[in-house]
Amino acid sequence: MHPTIKFRIDSALLAEYTWTLQVFGQYIGFKVEVVTENYDIYVAEHGLGDIQVSHFFRNTYESGDKQFKAYFRTSPLHFTASNKPDYLSSCFYLLSYLQEYADYYPDKYNRFPFEISVQHHYGIHQQNLVADYFDQLYLSMPKLQAIISKKVRPTAFFLSHDIDSVYGAFGDNYAHLIKKMRIGTLMQLLFNHYIKTPDYLLLNKIMDIEDEYDVRSTFFWLVNQGKGTRNINNADYNFKDNNVQRVVNEITSRGWTNGLHKSAGKDTFENELKRLNTSGTIINRNHYLLTELPTTFEALQNAGVQIDCTMGFPENIGFRNSYGLPIQPFNFTTKSPYAFIEVPLHVMDTTLKYYNGQNAQQAANTILQFLENNKSNALISVLWHNNYFFDYADTGWITTYKTILQFIRENKFEVITPEQIAATYRLS
Ligand SMILES: [Zn+2]
Q1: How far is the CA of 85 from the centre of ligand 1 (A)?
Q2: What is the pLDDT of residue 427?
Q3: Distance from residue 300's CA to the centre of ligand 1 (Å)
Q4: pLDDT tens, 400-428?
Q5: How far apart are CA 300 and CA 291, in angstroms?
Q6: Element (H, E) at 32
Q7: Whole-number pLDDT of residue 102
Q8: What confidence tier does 200 reach under pLDDT thresholds 50, 70, 90?
């Protein structure tokens, strides 16, 4: 049972700070009650506050300025007029994705570019900075420490596979196999492609690998075929195809999870979820990590999605809101948390291969270093596409994935399911 801590908040940013304190409470292990009398902790803009917040932060926020440069002058931390670090306001800024609500020039897929982020500017994208700030905030309050002691929280994992292609194996590997004269393999690929199950759809192979490590994962499916917006290819398969449906059912019966991979295009979450037609927790990740705030969050909320797994930087592994744990994001319109839980994406195969130009071995080293640095206070979300398990030309990527599973096993980290996430990370 978590104790309840009573906060008095003397600020116009009452809703903003209440939400940030709820996330802080979830991190430390307490529930938040906001009161005006008989409080444990006092939040105010003057020196009498146990937590002193900056009036300059409030002025800037109320003026509508959302650029990080208006809040963070020399480091990704905001300071009060008397030069004290304002951890609470800094955490609100980072956690809420406020920088993505500013005007910006999007990339060619209409996404928020990593290059203009506060994470890139200060080189902090691989740091769980909000967790560090929460630790500092906790340490700055002897009153809070007297009521509750913070327990160590080992990192946990969420594993997933986006199914963009099930017919790509033949085309992707044809040239390589001809060159290497591996005609037998080529014939097998051809046979699978046209007659049996195409290689990329042999998802049992992925489940078998994960079974060896006693872990489970989630498969995200595209229910729309062909070209979507901005020339983005959606599925190269028909989700209702018998072959595909057989695999979807197999995933469920083996105890793995199916989720929606929202396509690029005008179709709604409601329509796509209807076509996905799976039971259990409603979970989604957007194809190409397409996001535009607040439109994407509003659409997720309205469709009743329970968990979204989209918010990562395609260009780099790391933390898009500088926090390693799932949250219910802040709704700036209603000034309350969204109902869905955002499980940010941290590690993706294509980031390392295409954006960073690394080979499988280099990628393994990059990932291991990131994981070593984040062995506590995170739920690390990993995406490994199905085609990386069936690549005849570039075989190292299966080993790289197994390296991650090995790291999880050696450190006895837990791999958690969407059901566990929904039960653990809901704000009280
Ligand atoms: Zn995709």
Answers
A1: 40
A2: 86
A3: 17
A4: 999 999 999 999 999 999 999 999 999 87
A5: 11
A6: strand 31-34
A7: 97
A8: confident
> Rounded to the nearest whole angstrom, what is the distance from the C-alpha of residue 100 to the centroid of ligand 1?
21
Separation of CA 258 and ligand 1 centre (Å):
14
Q: How far is the CA of 165 from the centre of ligand 1 (A)?
A: 9
HSE, CB side, 13 Å, CA atoms: give it for residue 155. 24
- Cα of 143 vs centre of ligand 1, distance in Å, is 48
Q: Tokens standing for 219?
A: 């498969």
Q: How much distance in Å is there from the Cα of 373 to the middle of ligand 1?
A: 28
Q: Can you read off the two tokens belonging to residue 85?
A: 């670090």
Q: Which residue has the higher pLDDT, 389 or 382?
A: 382
Ligand 1 center–CA 297 separation, angstroms? 18
* CA 288 to ligand 1 centroid distance, Å: 5
Helix (H) or strand (E) run with residue 52 in it = strand 51-52
| CATH, range 156-424 | 3.20.20.370
State the distance from the centre of ligand 1 to the C-alpha of 163, rounded, in angstroms: 7
Q: Distance, CA 177 to ligand 1 centroid (Å)?
A: 26
CB 260 within 8 A of CB 283: yes
Q: How far is the CA of 5 from the centre of ligand 1 (A)?
A: 42
Using a cut of 0.85, tell me whether the model's pTM lies above it. yes
Rounded to the nearest angstrom, the distance between the alpha carbon of 243 and the centre of ligand 1 is 20
Give the domain ranges of the chain: 4-147, 156-424
> What one-letter code names the amino acid at 205?
K
Is the pLDDT at 7 greater than 80, yes or no? yes
Query: What confidence score (pLDDT) does residue 109 get?
Result: 95
Distance CA 358, CA 351 (A): 9
Q: How far apart, in whole angstroms, are the C-alpha atoms of residue 141 and residue 134?
A: 11
Averaged pLDDT for residues 73-93: 96
CB 425 within 8 A of CB 341: yes
* Torsion sign, CA atoms 40, 42, 43, 48: negative
- In the reported structure, the alpha carbon of residue 244 is separated from the centroid of ligand 1 by a whole-number distance in angstroms of 16
Which tokens is 350 given? 């294509």
The structure tokens listed for 333 are 């319109």
Question: What is the rounded CA–CA span in Å between residue 72 and residue 79?
Answer: 8
Span from the CA of 145 to the centroid of ligand 1 (angstroms): 44
Q: Are strands 330-331 and 336-337 parallel, antiparallel or unpaired?
A: antiparallel
How much distance in Å is there from the Cα of 287 to the middle of ligand 1?
4
